[in-house]
Amino acid sequence: MNIKPTDLVLEIGSGNNPNPRSNILCDLFITNNSQRAGEFSIVIDRSFIVANCYKLPFKDNSFDYIICSHLLEHLEKPEKFIKELTRVGKRGYIEVPNIYGERLFGWDFHLWYCELKNKTLILTRKKEGERFGGFYHKLIAEKIWFRRFFEEYGDKFYIKYEWDNKIKIQIREKNNKESHIEEIDKEVWNLMKKMKWSIKSDYTFYFQWMIKRVIRKLNKMTKKYTWNLKKIYQKDKLANDLAKILVCLNCKNNLVLLKNSLFCNNCNFKYKLNRGIPIMLDKNK
Asked: What is the pLDDT of residue 61?
């Protein structure tokens, strides 16, 4: 990711594994983990805002960079979200499973097949019967040889799209032709034929992978501990910093920080603060 040291970075749909570089996290679901990998609980270890991605509580061009990883494929209205994304951000990064990854893993809560052609994101709606089970999810969780294969060929299963100022996207409501799906499945199967079980390679990978995992875990624990200290000793500063970048969803007016809420003088509407987390949802929510 082309992120500058001075960039203010927002992550939308941060979920259970936020990017270390993100300054501010944004997610709609705090307790509902049904569409997160392994149903892991959400991580809140820095400034966090509850908001709907279709209606973000920020001024135009508020952020230098926005990270959006594994969210777009979940959305009923991806085009609407893209408009909001490019409104509040100047540059950013989108990551989604491509059609090969979707056919291999078959997330039943994903709505779209994603492809990248001529620097354009193409989303084609999935149909019932193409959302199948979690056999390969079980493999990657339990079999080290499959984990190694997935790490070695990970770029074959994901789209990593960096944008500047605008995002080229095409939405196809009409389902893929059966012939196209059959062609994709053949390519996935040919890729899977490259899997090779090897005691030496598997155990070498396993130990390297475990070391990286331990380091990530320690970094997360440190960040969580630091955040808890900040919430105790810098509570007012954190609240004021968030209040400065947030605006009313309805009129885009600046908000006033009260004891347990953010208040819009223009709309006479209060947005609740839940343990210091702004709940930035409109009146209908």
From this structure: 93
